[in-house]
């Protein structure tokens, strides 16, 4: 599953290679890729034809392309394996090519949505006054958004009866923090994932928020050169973000701070990776 930094790399690539271009034709090659567009593939294609992509925007892990002067936007769902590729028009079709967008210019490239497992897709939506596709209006700002309200987030943490990792993954509280970067930020903060949020002091929650931003920015820096080519690519398996991880995926490897073997625990149908020494579990109560 791509996380915020991966999606931001794709956004930058789309901003560079797709913004300002006018759609000549859309070809929907698999109905599942437009299943979030209830009116169907033909309607999707017809409504995009002749429209101009204004730019590429992102909130959390959501990515969308506003269409100029229409009040609508194409929302991209990358799912588990979705890729948005800008490819030369004469490049052979990918095996799992689902949607092709041809442009009314002679730059020689087209936009392709490729998705092996077809959990992802594209859909067209009205935009809210804030410019968000209406279906994601409830998604909170992400921590890299300049308008993210640190004090409001910290206050909400204190009031919620939840645990810290659940809160980090709650898209109505803070968006764009997935399993990987939650584990990384908690390791840096020396916080156990099951720590009740109500026990976090303001300095501790401020420190955590700082680490969340640091791990995301570090990942962005690591992937920042990859969008410089014509080939815009994202998928959950891509390796170039993984090298700098301190917690996620490091079961039984020594903690980079204290040398204790890292542990993995099943957590809400996923895994949590942590150092049992640096990140002490909260004391059982009651
Ligand atoms: Zn440790």
Distance between the termini: 37 Å
Rg over alpha carbons: 20 Å
Element order, helices and strands? HEHEEEEEEEHHHHEE
Strand content: 15-25%
Stretches with pLDDT under 50, minimum 5 residues: 224-240
Side by side, the strands of the main sheet go: 1-6-7-5
How many independent structural domains?
2
Q: List the bound ligands.
A: zinc ion
Number of strands: 10
SS-based class: alpha+beta
| Largest sheet, strands/sense/barrel | 4 strands, antiparallel
CATH topology of the largest domain: N-terminal domain of MutM-like DNA repair proteins
Top CATH class of the largest domain: Alpha Beta
Name the quaternary structure: single chain
* Mean pLDDT across every amino acid position: 89
Fourth-level CATH superfamily of the largest domain: MutM-like, N-terminal
Can you tell me the overall shape? elongated
The CATH architecture name of the largest domain reads Alpha-Beta Barrel
Give me the number of helical elements: 6
> Approximately how much helix is present in the residues?
10-25%
Descriptors:
binds zinc ion, Helicase, Ruva Protein, domain 3, alpha+beta, class I DNA-(apurinic or apyrimidinic site) endonuclease activity, 10 strands, single chain, elongated, N-terminal domain of MutM-like DNA repair proteins, 286 residues, EC 4.2.99.18, four-stranded antiparallel beta sheet
Characterise this structure.
Keywords: DNA damage, DNA repair, DNA-binding, Glycosidase, Hydrolase, Lyase, Metal-binding, Multifunctional enzyme, Zinc, Zinc-finger. GO terms for molecular function: 8-oxo-7,8-dihydroguanine DNA N-glycosylase activity; class I DNA-(apurinic or apyrimidinic site) endonuclease activity; damaged DNA binding; double-stranded DNA binding; zinc ion binding. DNA binds at residues 96, 117, 160. One of its GO terms (biological process) is base-excision repair. This protein is 24% helix and 20% strand. It folds into two domains: 4-136, MutM-like, N-terminal (N-terminal domain of MutM-like DNA repair proteins); 150-274, Orthogonal Bundle (Helicase, Ruva Protein, domain 3). The protein has helices at residues 4-17, 41-48, 150-159, 164-168, 179-189, 202-223; strands at 23-28, 57-59, 62-67, 72-77, 82-88, 97-103, 109-115, 121-126, 263-267, 270-274. The longest helix has 22 residues, at 202-223. The model is unreliable at 224-240 (pLDDT under 50). Helix 3 packs across helix 6. Strand 2 (57-59) and strand 3 (62-67) form a beta hairpin. The protein contains six helices and ten strands, in the order H-E-H-E-E-E-E-E-E-E-H-H-H-H-E-E. The strands form three sheets. It has a four-stranded antiparallel beta sheet with strand order 1-6-7-5. Strands 2-3-4-8 form a four-stranded antiparallel beta sheet, with helices on one face. Strands 9-10 form a two-stranded antiparallel sheet. It has 286 residues and is an alpha+beta fold. The structure holds zinc ion (ZN). Zinc ion binds next to loops.
């Amino acid at each position: 599953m791509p996380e915020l930094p991966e999606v931001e790399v794709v956004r930058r690539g789309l901003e560079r290679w797709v913004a300002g271009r006018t759609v000549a034709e859309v070809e929907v090659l698999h109905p599942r890729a437009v299943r979030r567009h209830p009116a169907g593939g033909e309607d999707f294609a017809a409504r995009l034809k002749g429209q101009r992509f204004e730019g590429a925007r992102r909130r959390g892990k959501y990515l969308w392309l506003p269409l100029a002067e229409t009040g609508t936007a194409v929302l991209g769902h990358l799912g588990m394996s979705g890729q948005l590729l800008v490819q030369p028009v004469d490049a052979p079709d990918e095996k799992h090519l689902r949607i092709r967008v041809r442009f009314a210019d002679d730059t020689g490239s087209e936009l392709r949505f490729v998705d092996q497992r077809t959990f992802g897709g594209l859909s067209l939506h009205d935009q809210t006054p804030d410019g968000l596709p209406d279906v994601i209006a409830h998604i909170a700002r992400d921590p890299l958004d300049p308008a993210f309200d640190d004090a409001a987030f910290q206050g909400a943490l204190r009031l919620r009866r939840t645990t810290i990792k659940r809160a980090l993954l709650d898209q109505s509280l803070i968006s764009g923090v997935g399993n990987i970067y939650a584990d990384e930020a908690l390791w840096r903060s020396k916080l156990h994932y099951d720590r009740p949020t109500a026990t976090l002091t303001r300095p501790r929650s401020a420190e955590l928020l700082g680490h969340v931003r640091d791990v995301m920015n570090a990942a962005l820096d690591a992937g920042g050169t990859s969008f410089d080519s014509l080939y815009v690519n994202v998928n959950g398996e891509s390796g170039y973000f993984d090298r700098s991880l301190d917690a996620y995926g490091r079961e039984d490897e020594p903690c980079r701070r204290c040398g204790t073997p890292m542990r993995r625990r099943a957590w809400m149908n996923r895994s949590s990776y942590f150092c049992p020494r640096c990140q002490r579990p909260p004391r059982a109560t009651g």
